[in-house]
């Protein structure tokens, strides 16, 4: 136990030693906000960060434009075993239209980079030849032995940093899952800025839909009866959804905009376009909600004589599956660092959004905690953009990175923990599939 705590201390020291470099990385990303799939500057900044010779210790193997144009991968550890333990830290870095980094994805990138550096530094501090055992405390002699004549980590595990673009729009992690980027990973870590500290929040499933109405143009004053008004269809659709809300479950969400409402007041609009996001706690509920919403769109077309085209997004976001073993250990480590977590009641009754990390939790065990950044500003506001770029946020961001790295060390060395994490993953996923089957 003492040896493990010493490794955690080394991880925390590494974060402090690299604080200026990490802060500069975050500020670089924050100052040049880029939208989904176009995060070229952020991609280059992060790949330079891991490729740079100024980082302490052995070099990272960096793969720019990894399976997506603005994704990347950085690996440390030779992984000479056939099946090494592989832990991954995720970085997000896309921004919001018009608001910049109003969801603090520059801080997500910083947390992922900092936690990976910290874990690497802790393992590199084990310079003496040792008999390494995954799931066994350093220095003990019990358990299955994996002989490492040099550094522990080089032979026993691989640390991976995945740059995952397009969380706000499109689902970059889903693209990467389909491309095999998450194959072979054992545990995945990521943390998201918020207004509170929570080891878990019940992020919900999400489906986006684009609706297009096609009518017939005509002069709105001279002969409006010759037109078929696509704007009427859009307004009816919006109102249909407003009527539906009385019968919606409290946990369901529908929100959208009219992207195109016509071109000129004296022309009957022949084309309108709407975009909506639908959210529900599970994929099963989401499919029920989607059917109800699509009926609202279709009926508006019938009432106005328009043709309607309904197109769903390619990548539905899944709800985030909890992993109680990881959450418990993360909270224990966080409390040692002074993190004050919200109550379980607050978690169950709290507000949440959606993230493509949910899809990740269906293929590999993971943890997605939320962290306070020193501001009560709400995400997706101009005030949160300012907070995400502030010096105040740095303390909280780096403290969170320390907690993630400490949790990763527990996964490696605490007897039985890795298997508990895997068992939680299997049980929760099976329960989800049984309770919420998707036809």
Automatic annotation (TrEMBL):
Entry similarity comment: Belongs to the peptidase M20A family.
Q: Which gene encodes it?
A: Pm20d2
Coiled-coil parts of chain: none
Q: Which Pfam families match?
A: M20_dimer
Where's the Peptidase M20 dimerisation domain?
A: 209-302
Q: Which parts of the chain span the membrane according to its record?
A: none
Could you identify this protein by its name? Peptidase M20 domain-containing protein 2
Q: Which domain of life is it from?
A: Eukaryota
**GO molecular function terms noted in the UniProt entry:** dipeptidase activity
SUPFAM superfamilies on file: Bacterial exopeptidase dimerisation domain (SSF55031), Zn-dependent exopeptidases (SSF53187)
């Amino acid at each position: 136990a003492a040896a493990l705590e010493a490794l955690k201390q080394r991880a925390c020291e590494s974060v402090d030693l690299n604080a200026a470099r990490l802060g500069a990385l975050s500020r670089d990303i924050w100052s040049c906000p880029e939208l989904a799939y176009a995060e070229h500057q952020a991609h280059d900044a992060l790949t330079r960060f891991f490729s740079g010779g100024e980082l302490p210790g052995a070099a990272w193997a960096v793969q720019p434009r990894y399976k997506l144009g603005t994704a990347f991968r950085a690996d440390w550890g030779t992984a000479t075993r056939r099946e090494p333990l592989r832990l991954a830290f995720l970085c997000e870095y896309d921004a919001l239209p018009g608001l910049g980094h109003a969801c603090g994805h520059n801080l997500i990138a910083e947390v992922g980079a900092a936690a990976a550096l910290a874990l690497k530094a802790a393992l590199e501090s084990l310079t003496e030849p040792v008999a390494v055992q995954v799931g066994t405390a350093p220095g003990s002699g019990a358990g299955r032995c994996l002989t490492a004549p040099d550094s522990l980590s080089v032979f026993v595990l691989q640390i991976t940093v995945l740059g995952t673009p397009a969380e706000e729009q499109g689902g970059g992690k889903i693209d990467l899952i389909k491309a095999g980027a998450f194959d072979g990973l054992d545990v995945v870590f990521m943390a998201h800025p918020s207004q509170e500290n929570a080891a878990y929040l019940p992020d919900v499933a999400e489906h986006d839909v684009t609706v297009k109405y096609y009518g017939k143009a005509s002069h709105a004053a001279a002969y409006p009866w010759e037109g078929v008004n696509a704007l009427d269809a859009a307004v009816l659709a919006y109102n249909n959804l407003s009527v539906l809300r009385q019968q919606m479950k409290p946990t369901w969400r529908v929100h959208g905009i009219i992207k195109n409402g016509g071109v000129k007041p004296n022309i009957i609009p022949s084309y309108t376009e709407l975009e909506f996001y639908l959210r529900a706690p599970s994929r099963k509920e989401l499919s029920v909600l989607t059917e109800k919403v699509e009926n609202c769109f279709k009926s508006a077309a019938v009432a106005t004589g328009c043709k309607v085209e309904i197109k769903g997004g390619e990548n539905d976001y899944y709800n985030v599956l909890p992993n109680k073993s990881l959450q418990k250990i993360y909270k224990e480590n966080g409390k040692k660092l002074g993190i004050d977590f919200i109550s379980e009641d607050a978690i169950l009754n709290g507000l949440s959004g959606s993230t493509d990390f949910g899809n990740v939790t269906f293929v590999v065990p993971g943890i997605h905690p939320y962290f306070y950044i020193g501001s009560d500003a709400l995400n997706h506001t101009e005030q949160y953009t300012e907070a995400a770029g502030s010096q105040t946020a740095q303390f909280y961001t780096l403290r969170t990175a320390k907690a993630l790295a400490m949790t990763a060390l527990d996964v490696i060395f605490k007897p039985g923990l890795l298997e508990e994490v895997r068992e939680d993953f299997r049980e929760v996923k099976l329960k989800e599939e049984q309770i919420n089957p998707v036809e």
